[in-house]
């Protein structure tokens, strides 16, 4: 029994290629909707993400996941890996993927910390919780919710990979990511310095 369980676990974690291998295919279909099977190799079976391949999806709202997949399909949001992946989702595929991952719990994050502890200066916390109105910067939590928990069209930031948060802020700055309401995120990102991007990405990644 232990051997059988271990084999199934390997099949789930190996992604799309293993999803078609008998005899575990039927069991896999019962656990993960078929449209979502392509996603697990980069985002994990439980949506906890596989750095650096894919960010955490657990804890994101169904609305947010659906919207982003639609943006990838339309080319509004650009990513060499995600755009073709999103195009495979036809019919109710987007809905099935969004339902599956949004239902996964956002487990407590235990980041790998090198050294004694991660220390953030007051300026980083101030940007996160108060913003900087002298530069027209609203607090991050204004849209992303208390403690960065997100909701609706605004993604959860708490516990997300720091590398992913940074990549997305840089994408807003460069204009390769779009689709935000009234250009809000592009406006915010373009007012952040490189040091602030790094600091905020690490700050939210370490929030439990």
UniProtKB/TrEMBL annotation:
Annotated heme c 1 binding sites: 39, 42-43, 82
GO cellular component: periplasmic space
Modification comment: Binds 2 heme c groups covalently per subunit.
Boundaries of every Cytochrome c domain copy: 20-208
Presence of the UniProt keyword Heme in the record: yes
SUPFAM superfamilies: Cytochrome c
PANTHER family cross-referenced by the UniProt entry: BLL4483 PROTEIN (PTHR33751:SF11), CBB3-TYPE CYTOCHROME C OXIDASE SUBUNIT FIXP (PTHR33751)
UniProt protein name: Cytochrome c family protein
Organism: Shewanella baltica (strain OS155 / ATCC BAA-1091)
């Amino acid at each position: 029994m232990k051997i059988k369980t271990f084999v199934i676990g390997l099949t789930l974690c190996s992604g799309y290629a293993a999803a078609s291998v008998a005899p575990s295919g039927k069991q896999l279909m019962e656990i993960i909707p078929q449209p979502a099977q392509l996603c697990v190799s980069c985002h994990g079976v439980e949506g906890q993400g596989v750095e650096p391949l894919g960010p955490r999806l657990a804890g994101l709202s169904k609305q947010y996941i659906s919207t982003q997949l639609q943006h990838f399909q339309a080319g509004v949001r650009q990513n060499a890996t995600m755009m073709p992946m999103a195009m495979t989702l036809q019919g109710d595929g987007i809905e099935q993927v969004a339902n599956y991952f949004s239902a996964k719990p956002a487990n407590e994050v235990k980041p790998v910390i090198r050294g004694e502890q991660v220390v953030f200066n007051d300026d980083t916390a101030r940007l996160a919780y108060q913003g900087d109105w002298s530069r027209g910067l609203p607090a991050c939590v204004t849209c992303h919710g208390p403690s960065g928990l997100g909701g609706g069209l605004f993604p959860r930031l708490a516990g997300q990979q720091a590398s992913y948060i940074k990549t997305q802020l840089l994408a807003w700055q460069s204009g390769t990511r779009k689709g935000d309401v009234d250009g809000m995120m592009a406006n915010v990102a373009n007012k952040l310095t490189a040091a602030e991007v790094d600091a905020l990405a690490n700050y939210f990644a370490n929030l439990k």
